[in-house]
Amino acid sequence: MPDDLSPADPSPEPATPSGSEADWPDVRLHVVTGKGGTGKTTVAAALALTLASLGRKVLVAEVEGRQGLSQALDVPPLAFEERPIMKVSGGGEVWGLAVDAKAALIEYLSIFYHLGRAGKALEKVGAIDFATTIAPGVRDVLLIGKIYEAVRRRGTRRRPDGGIDWLYDAVVLDAPPTGRVGRFLGVNREVADLAKVGPIRAQADSITALLRSGSSAVHVVTLLEEMPVQETVDAVAELRAAQLPVGAIIVNQARDPLLDPAQLAKLAAGSLDRSAVAQALRHSGAFPGDDGSGTESRTDDWSESCVTALLAEGAAHAERMRLEDQQFSIVESLGRPVYVLPPLRGGVDADGVRILAQELADQGKW
After folding, report:
1. CA 243, CA 237: separation in Å to the nearest integer?
2. Domain residue extents for the chain
3. Which CATH architecture is the domain 2-254+341-363 placed in?
4. What predicted TM-score, i.e. pTM, was given to this entire model?
5. Distance CA 292, CA 185 (A)
6. 80 pLDDT exceeds 50?
7. pLDDT digits (tens, 9 = 90+) for 301-337
8. Rounded distance, CA 147 to CA 129, Å?
9. Given strand 93-98, what is the order of strands in its sheet?
10. How far apart are CA 134 and CA 136, in angstroms?
């Protein structure tokens, strides 16, 4: 798994695994979304490392200007141009990109209207800010248009098997949260009233065709809590209605039950034997001053308060597990592959992202 965070030099990417070896054989654009606070950016960073650990050349990109990916991967802030940010064990590499609407519009004007320096002059007088603010649909076309171009860009080498040599084997997009991702990806709908014909409409049509093809998948990150799960359900319904391919549901920060089902049921019902719990605590030496011999060296009041507190905490844990099981059943009912990631006890940092990357690699064939 990824263990080398040194800057990368471009190097030949190995061939992608064949369809029989991968869960997502034809997917090259992995869009990652999720309710705010579910850890979608961390998961996007981990997925990029997972794909790179398979020997692939991966571009990871963000469109919200928060530099969350650079913080998660512990690398310098991502630039507005694609740049190598790390190599990983396995021979793969990760490139980074922070898509900026203003920079994308200047590039767009240069490519389609040959404005060149005039585009930068427009920026100086505020026209670029005006254009990207007054027409949010056009702004989204510009943002995702950069991702589209990166996905479709060809490399310079001829593949031995005669297939298409893409510059990137995979692109991972840290997309807007679920509340906005439908609108962000629905570029055709957003520009319908702004551009009936012309380059912007043509680009929106091409982007939509890519997003609806087997080359793309939208993965949704959630927590096992009522609001994130409900937003996941709504997002999946919205994506399906828009004919956008739903990928995996990635459950983040899932807790493991600390006790077996029978013990959890007794804790929830309040039927666990208090005297047996107290005796176990005394034998464990858990009471201050206890010599572990089974004889109390503290007052009965102290023992009783410890047992009461422990049982209350256990009951809360049992209730939490019950609620998470309910939410997990809802996630499973969506009919998509489910990946489960643990909480990061040491916090979200580059080491934690590697742990999540390993989990994704272990649970799926990417």
Report:
1. 10
2. 2-254+341-363, 261-323
3. 3-Layer(aba) Sandwich (3.40)
4. 0.79
5. 63
6. yes
7. 556 778 888 888 877 887 788 888 999 999 999 999 9
8. 21
9. 83-87, 93-98, 57-62, 170-174, 29-34, 216-222, 246-251, 338-340
10. 6
